[in-house]
Amino acid sequence: MTDSVYLGNPNLKKANVQQEWTKEELLEYKKCMDSPQYFIENYVKIVSLDEGLIQFKMYPFQKEMVGTFHKNRFTICKLPRQSGKSTVMISYLLHYALFNPSVNIAILANKAATARDLLGRLQLAYEHLPKWLQQGVMSWNKGSLELENGSKILASSTSASAVRGGSYNIIFLDEFAYVPSNVAEQFFSSVYPTISSGKSTKVIIVSTPHGMNMFYKIWTDAEEKRNSYIPIEVHWSEVPGRDDKWKKETIANTSEQQFQTEFECEFLGSVNTLIAPSKLRVLAYKQHLQKNAGITVHKKPEKDRTYMLTADVARGTQNDNSAFVVFDITEIPYKVVVTFKDNEIKPLLFPQIIHQVARAYNQAFVLIEVNDIGEQVANNLQFDLEYDNLIMASMRGRAGQVMGGGFSGGKAQLGVRTTKAVKTVGCSNLKQIVESDKIIIEDFDIINELSTFIVHGSSFQAEEGCNDDLVMCCVLFAWASDQTYFKELTDSDIRHQMYKDQQNQIEQDMAPFGFIVDGLEDENIGQVVDEYGTRWSPIVRKYDTDW
User: For the chain, what is the radius of gyration of the CA atoms?
Assistant: First the structure.
């Protein structure tokens, strides 16, 4: 008996052990191979908190999920907490490994420990399979396993290096929304060649929403049929035992916002964001026209339109992005037409890109943040590349920095320094113009950064692990839009426009109630014209009289 088990584990069959089959077992084997749902419901065991080791009985929506996984290459699932999503996944992956020879499967999670835990649950289910269903074990570890049919399963954290150099038949991404945005982007740029190398490779993404990140982008694109992913959405009420009473109790024990994110599966940003959650929720990105070398184009330059470029400069050390945003400022609402971000570009090359894009967009006005290395970029633009439309700023006593078009005395500088005062005004103005629809933002990266741009002390900055480079470009623009010089450039006053809109709204709100007319403004009110054209006015008594 011991010769037929793996490393003394009586629940595991050793490789190269001859298996004798009964006729009934052969029929069952074929049923299991043909139907993953049948295999899972009859042979996969799980550990229940209340009942211990039990047979896994799937809910109707879980059966549909398995069917979708089996029939399609790319699937993305937006699921509420505690809906059994991980259990469904490991059950399907176990079926795939058993009944498909020589396949490689990657279980990836936001943390390596989580991925290993998922693999551990798969291994537990495997141990409780009957021997005639098992493949012999070649290796059995905490982070991987190999079966005698050549199938391998790897558990790792979701990172750019996780599956590099390998060829995988299934990549399962668990809680992908909780992977930091920069890591998620690097992962997909690294793993895409692996995915595209085979015609049957499957990618299954399963997560609860967590802000407007890469998961949000893939999900939105799937809904709009802009990619190949099949979207699966499950409402919390589809899980047995969850009703309105359960909802009220859950909200009472957590919070309304937490319930909306984790159970209603809404794409909400972080807590205490600059932009109100209600506004973030309706911001929708659109597919760009083109994207290359860090430049994302949403709208091509048009004749007779005015553009402005604001830039935030990094050192090019991979810890931060150099970024710029081009705005169409011809009229209100303003529009984001181009974005750029790159964490490797050197300050010497950055002016060249700014110069090319600014020239293409009708010699756009350029405003550069010059706190650090940005001063070098501004100098290169002005003196080496001889770009004329570089905006300057001057110190004007208590007024602080004032934007202008040229040098005015010894206190003028190329670009603007992001002081506390500049950032405060910029953040305040950005909040107003976004929430009042005075600017159109359809760029995914900006919306993503806005969803994690949160209160920090008396100011705002990116949540830990997130970036705010593009948002800071928008903050600079919002500061500039309130400057007198900006109004001269555009012949538009954002505050005046907002005031007019508010007045119009008040009038519309008052309209249903009507207005009291006292007749004092029009002397002809109340007059009657007879058939001969004579006007007769009513007698107005100013005091009591007998006649």
Answer: 32
pLDDT value, residue 526: 54
Cα–Cα–Cα angle for 352, 356, 361, rounded to 5 degrees: 145
Tokens 């010089």, residue? 485
* Packed helices 181-196 and 214-223: angle between N→C axes, nearest 10 degrees: 50
> How distant, in Å, are the alpha carbons of 139, 274, 309, 423 from that of 432?
60, 10, 20, 14
């042979």: which residue's tokens?
Answer: 43
- How far apart (Å, rounded) are the C-alpha atoms in residues 291 and 293? 7
Is pTM, for the whole model, over 0.90? no
pLDDT of residue 500: 64
Give the CA distances from residue 238 to residues 60, 253, 263, 366, in Å, rounded to whole numbers and listed in that order: 9, 21, 11, 53
3-class DSSP assignment, residue 109: strand
Does residue 494 surpass a pLDDT of 70? no
**222-256 burial, b for 16+ CB within 10 Å, e for fewer?**
beeeebebbbbebebeebeebeeeeeeebeeeeee
pLDDT at residue 521 tops 70: no
DSSP code per residue over 244-279: HHHHHHHHHHS-HHHHHHHTS------TTBSS-HHH
Of all residues in the chain, what percent carry a pLDDT higher than 70? 85
The amino acid present at 83, given as its one-letter code, is: S
Task: State which amino acid sits at residue 488.
Answer: E
The catalytic site residues sit at: 175
Say how far residue 535 (Cα) sits from the centre of its chain: 70
What confidence category does residue 281 fall into, taking pLDDT thresholds of 50, 70 and 90?
Answer: confident
Q: Region 17-39: what's the mean pLDDT?
A: 91
3-state secondary structure 452-481: CEEEECCEEEECCCCCCHHHHHHHHHHHHC
Q: What is the reported pLDDT for 351?
A: 93
The pLDDT value recorded for residue 8 is 83
CB 390, CB 361: distance < 8 Å:
no
Helix (H) or strand (E) holding 147: strand 144-147
List, for residues 150-165, the tens digit of each pLDDT value. Answer: 999 999 988 867 766 6
Phi and psi of 362, rounded to 5°? 55, 45
> Could you tell me the domains of the chain?
22-268 (3.40.50.300), 282-499 (3.30.420.240)
- Residue 403 pLDDT class (50, 70, 90 cuts): confident
- Tell me phi and psi for residue 250, to 5 degrees: -65, -45
Long-range contacts of residues 319-323, Cβ cutoff 8 Å, at least 24 apart:
319/343, 320/467, 320/469, 321/467, 321/469, 321/470, 322/347, 322/350, 322/469, 323/469, 323/470, 323/472, 323/473
Count other C-beta atoms under 10 Å from residue 459's C-beta. 11
